[in-house]
Amino acid sequence: MEKKSTSSHKTHGEYYILVETNAEEVESWYYFIRKEGNEEAIKQLKQDLDKVKDPEYIDDMSVFWIDVEKTVSSQTAKEMSKVELNSCQFHRKYDGVLKPIDFKFKKDKKEKQKRYLEKIFDKLGYGKIEEYISDEDIDTDDMDSFSESETESESDEIAKVDDVDDVEKDISELSIEEIKERLPPGLAESDVPQWARSKKKS
Question: Taking the model in full, what pTM does it have?
Answer without folding.
Answer: 0.68
